[in-house]
Amino acid sequence: AVVSTQSTGNIPVFLNYIYYLVWMFSGAQYETYYNSVLLYQYLWNITWVLCMAGNAAVNPVIYYWRIISYRTWCRELARWLTLIIRIPGSSYTPFNTTSTSV
Prior knowledge:
This protein is mainly α and 102 residues long. The chain contains 4 helices and no strands. The longest helix is centred in the middle third of the chain and has 30 residues, at 37-66. The chain is elongated.
């Protein structure tokens, strides 16, 4: 496994690095320290891909829940998007497209 210089953004990645550092200073063989197929072949992929993607997916939900200004911004953005976007096939249009000339 190669240690990347990218920042670690969540706890499983951090714990994996701690496990890796303990292995480095123990003097044991990599295959004996990471002694299962899951640890040996998939641990880095699981922590870097799945845990990082999960963390990135959950962050906006946590931000929306905890930060009031972000929640207000999201609501305003949603309101403006409903004014701009017209869904194809629906009868809804945000603008008055009928002429009311007398």
